[in-house]
Known about the structure:
Domain ABC transporter: 7-239
Protein name: ABC transporter, ATPase subunit
Pfam family, one: ABC_tran
Largest sheet: 6 strands, mixed
Strand order of the largest sheet: 6-7-8-3-9-10
InterPro entries: AAA+_ATPase (IPR003593), ABC_transporter-like_ATP-bd (IPR003439), ABC_transporter-like_CS (IPR017871), ABC_transporter_ATP-binding (IPR050763), P-loop_NTPase (IPR027417)
Distance between the termini: 26 Å
GO molecular function: ATP binding; ATP hydrolysis activity
Amino acid sequence: MSEVPALSIQNLSKTYSNGFSALNDVSLTVPQGGFFALLGPNGAGKSTMIGIISSLFKPTTGSVHIFGTDLLADPSKAKQFLGVVPQEFNFNQFEKVEDILITQAGYFGIAAKEAKPRAEKLLKALGLWDKRDSKSRELSGGMKRRLMIARALIHKPRLLILDEPTAGVDIELRRSMWEFMQQINIEENTTIILTTHYLEEAEQLCKRIAILDHGEIRINTEMKDLLAQLSVETFVFDVATPLTHQIVLTGVTDVEQPDDLTIEVTLTEGESLNGVFNQLSEQGITVASMRNKSNRLEELFMRLVDKSLHEPLSS
């Protein structure tokens, strides 16, 4: 028998009282233990979908099963499997950090004596243990984000939904948060669904991706298969000494010089990056560093949501 998926959404639709259709016959399956990206432009339907999964909204039609439990028929049991980190801070600003976790555990029938060691473990892992007796309103924005994650994990959910969890968080803190997320994904087999506007995070962390657009699933595939569709990439070369003339390169799609220390080269599939290095070297140009102008997933995402292109992407 095949493994029950962590999340199974079938023919899900949501039309609000004003007639706006946020979701249109959406079906989606997330396997157990995966790190899954759910992306889409603003207004695509992501928040509505997460709201339905977390029981904030009722769907117009369709079903949601969390580890095989029907969310509509047995919401209490289904939500035992689920942890959600929403975009907005929604805890008591005057409650102490540790107490917020203990209170949350109580909602799931977990006694304080059982919740305390779990809270200590989470707060230490997320760098908040020294703040356990502080009121949440005294925390920095990054600390509040980490507190939201700890609260969502206090009852040991098997499915964790992270809705823009690193919005406004500095790069160093984002990296430490993702290290922790990867750890619980691997060590505790926690299935994670991520929404983010930092597309490089999705590319780095997630093995599978679904893209919502205008309430419909446009893409639902393995990350590696989606990225394989990208045939054009732009590379930025930072040179060691200022350029004194216009660079000419052969065998490339395009070359630009934004300033006298930078060369941007666009390559189409089949064109050689090594050939670019060789030509620059022949012209006496030393490359100090090289990077992608934008990450690959971002380029694909922009192609998908640009309504002027209508360029089909296979799923």
